[in-house]
Protein: L-lysine ABC transporter ATP-binding protein
Amino acid sequence: MNASSAAISFDNIEKNFGSLRVLQGITGEIHQGEVVAVIGTSGCGKSTLLRCFNRLETIDGGNLVVNGIDLSRSRLTSNQLRRLRTEVGMVFQQFNLFPHLSVLGNLTLAPSKVLKRSPKESSRLARFYLEKVGVADKANAYPEQLSGGQKQRVAIARSLCMNPQVMLFDEPTSALDPELVGEVLGVMQQLAQEGMTMVIVTHEMQFAREVANRVLFLNQGRVEEEGSAREVLTQPQSDRLKSFLSRMSFVNN
Structure:
């Protein structure tokens, strides 16, 4: 792949929280249509890296370009920020649904306010994506009436309503009961098969091996190992990655 196919390009990026150096010179690219899993122990910088990709965090050094928008700049114009929020969707661990709005209300809010779509068009899109993720029958329900898996699928549908070019997933199954994990991973796998560019912070190693094109293993704010999913997860080179996979009870076969 050539550089022009990069949806996200990052070069020597750094992020500090006070004296704590969370990202310490990370470099790489996410190409259009690629699915990249980011793995590593808690506190290694995975979620921070993801939050930098959609400007929830600003970087302290290096260069970062996402969908042609230079996020290395200290300030973005309102149009740039609006474009970023439209083109880069993010799904969080805790769903972040508005509790006072119905499922349909959660999905139609941003298309109406940000994209200026009509109520009819916003509703049509919302119902289309609810059908896509398998919760069309929950359109009029409220978040408190949903299971964790249903909430996360609604959150994915909400992001899709903005017609994003890139989807970021921050440990989307970590808050779910084990029996509900599969229904969310199934939706993500479908998106991957349809060619959506995706960056996924995950502890689901089997899913990463089956769905991701590449895996980045972060350790103490640096990329310690990267490569194809099968290569990294079944033939780890560093002792730290071997130890991490052993703790995750991942069978290298």
In short: The CA atoms of residues 111 and 117 lie 6 Å apart. The two ends are 28 Å apart (CA to CA).
